[in-house]
Design a protein that fits this description.
3-stranded antiparallel sheet; 7-stranded mixed sheet; binds S-adenosylmethionine; disordered N terminus; 12 strands
Length: 285
């Protein structure tokens, strides 16, 4: 018996659209897309948009996910709003992130951070820069990496050591190599790893595998901070190639890949029309 959501988008009283961004809005039977490009209240269901329950058929299509999300992000503008989904969210989100980082007991002793799926550096420049002296970033989209490099040029002092243009799936493999200078090798240990709004683009298997590999580059007392959208039922967003997982699903994956959750909270931006956001701090078992 499939206990995932039986999502019937004929129930929706507003259309959902293409060009989805991170923050998808919801209220009861209404799903609204918070695209900065357009918004309508038409009753027509957009046939190009596929929200589906995460059933076996979707899992069978999983090999397409990477291509879909890669193409999706190739089309997005190089702005913090685009990274955060809606313009009102970026500032609130950064305030929350700074509060979270401040709550880490040994944060003042931490020096190095790895940010995965860093986009154009929204979090790196607005938050991580305040806490760390060495920053490495991984981002799949080369245009985003180029933008990070441009922004870094204006910083004084400069803190980004490595700009790694790689998918997280590929980076997985790179973790264990030490030949190419652009890769991370297991001699590097980070005090913190920061991941936001990117794990949803990975399959469960890839996520498990990534977290397992990250254990080799996380300091014994280090932490991983994760912020992701969550939902009561798993929702697969075909157009964006992403999966909104349940809190339990994430918790299980963290434990199964060898971590313990030291802190977690629902992040409240006072927007009931958005998918819930959850923040975890996890450490090695
Ligand atoms: C919503 S943006 C978030 C960017 C940044 N974490 C932030 O919060 O501002 C998602 C980012 O994840 C990147 N991304 C998606 N799938 C990825 C993958 N498999 N490997 C690496 N990066 C990925 C996208 O290119 C995009 O930059």
């Amino acid at each position: 018996m499939n206990n995932e959501i039986n999502f019937n988008y004929k129930l929706m009283n507003k259309s959902i659209f293409r060009n989805f961004n991170k923050l998808l809005c919801k209220s009861k039977n209404t799903f609204i897309h918070h695209s900065q490009h357009y918004f309508t209240t038409s009753n027509n269901t957009n046939k190009n948009t596929n929200y589906t329950n995460n059933n076996k058929n979707n899992i069978a299509n999983i090999s397409n996910i990477t291509n879909i999300s890669e193409q999706y992000w190739q089309q997005q503008p190089l702005t913090y709003d685009s990274m955060a989904g809606v313009s009102e969210i970026n500032q609130l989100d950064i305030i929350h992130t700074i509060k979270t980082l401040n709550s880490i007991p040994n944060i003042s002793k931490m020096e190095s951070v790895l940010e995965l799926g860093a986009g154009i550096g929204r979090i790196t420049f607005q938050a991580l820069y305040k806490f760390f002296t060495i920053i490495d970033i991984v981002e799949r989209n080369p245009n985003f990496i180029a933008e990070v490099k441009l922004t870094e040029l204006k910083q004084n002092p400069k803190k980004i050591r490595k700009f790694i243009c790689s998918s997280l799936e590929q980076f997985d493999i790179d973790l264990n190599t030490n030949s190419a200078s652009n890769n991370i090798n297991t001699n590097i240990k980070y005090d913190l790893i920061f991941i936001q709004w990117v794990l949803e683009y990975l399959t469960d298997d890839d996520l498990l595998s990534l977290l397992s590999k990250l254990k080799t580059v996380l300091n014994k007392e280090g932490e991983i901070v994760i912020k992701e959208n969550v939902n009561n039922n798993t929702i697969f967003i075909n157009d964006e190639g992403s999966t909104i997982r349940t809190i339990n699903k994430y918790n299980n994956i963290f434990v199964n890949s060898g971590y313990k959750v030291v802190y977690s909270e629902k992040v409240d931006y006072n927007r009931e029309d958005l998918y819930d956001i959850y923040c975890w701090r996890i450490k090695l078992l």
